[in-house]
Every structure is written in C-alpha cells, then in structure tokens.
Amino acid sequence: MKRLSIVLLLISISFMIMKANNLSERKAKCIVLKRWEYPQRTPISIPIEAIQDENSIEVRFLENVNNQVTFQVKDQQGNIIFQDVLLAPNEQETYKINLGDYQIGHYELLCIEEDMTFIGEFDIEHSIL
Fold first, then answer.
1. Per the domain annotation, does 98 fall within a domain?
2. What is the dihedral of CA 34, 111, 55, 103, to 10 degrees?
3. 122, 107 in Cβ contact below 8 A?
4. Model-level pTM?
5. Deepest in the core among 23, 31, 69, 101, taking most CB within 10 A?
6. Structural domain containing residue 38
7. How many other C-beta atoms lie within 10 A of the C-beta of residue 33?
C-alpha cells in the first residue's frame, strides 16, 4: 500500500511538471501602447492592456470606459484590415482579435476612444494558417 501511494505521488508530480512546462512554452507578447501625438514628458494612464499570443490579441480594459472604443489593425502600408466598435466596455471585459487570416508582417493596433488614440505595434513572424 505504501509503494502504491508513492507511485501515485510520483505520477501526479510528473503530470504537474508537464503542465508547468506546457504553460511556460506559451509564447505571448505584451503590445506596448503609446498615445498618438502626445508629449512624452507628461505621464498618462493607458486604460487597456494588449497581449499577443500565437493566433490572437487579447485586449483587457484596466478601467471602465464611458464612450465607444474603436479597434483597428493596420498593415505596413497603412491599410485598415480590421475594425470593430465596442460600446462602453467595462473593466471586466476582455476583447479578442483573431489573427488567423493575417500574413507574416508588421502591423499596428489602434485603440480609438473619443479624442484619444493609442497605438501599439506587433509582428507576425510565422504563418498562423
């Protein structure tokens, strides 16, 4: 009985280690957002956080927004290849942008809220298809 419990303990530890390794292999990047045409000397709070993983971008709101928010993704030539509008998103809301149809290249993520525009840049380094 003691041997059986030791074997079960070792098996469960090995599964926990495998799961930890799988989680550490997730390749996510934080997209740094900057306010467009705004003096760099003035500290401002950025109300969203954008994280890119292999096939999507997750946008989390860090505070409640009272107005509509427009998301755009532009390619290297400045063409809008994605646009969506959210009406008054709240702090608990997470918005996901699917990158499945995008080709390898450099892109810009724009978050437009009333009179403020936040821009972040990201790259797709391999085909997601």
1. yes
2. -90
3. yes
4. 0.66
5. 69
6. 27-124
7. 20
Cα atoms found within 13 Å of the Cα of residue 99, Cβ hemisphere only: 25
Tens of pLDDT, residue by residue over 54-74, are 789 999 888 877 788 899 999
CATH number of the domain that residue 47 is part of: 2.60.40.3080
Q: Is residue 5 part of a domain?
A: no
Q: What is the largest CA-CA distance in the chain?
A: 70
- 43: in domain: yes
Q: For tokens 């954008």, name the residue.
A: 50
pLDDT beyond 90 at 44:
no
Instruction: Count how many domains the chain has.
Output: 1
pLDDT reported for residue 76 = 92
Q: What is the pLDDT of residue 23?
A: 46
Tell me whether residue 61 is in a domain.
yes
- Residue found by looking up tokens 């059986």 in the block: 4
What lies within 8 Å, CB to CB, of 81 at 6+ separation is: 73, 74, 75, 102, 107
Residue 73 corresponds to which amino acid? V
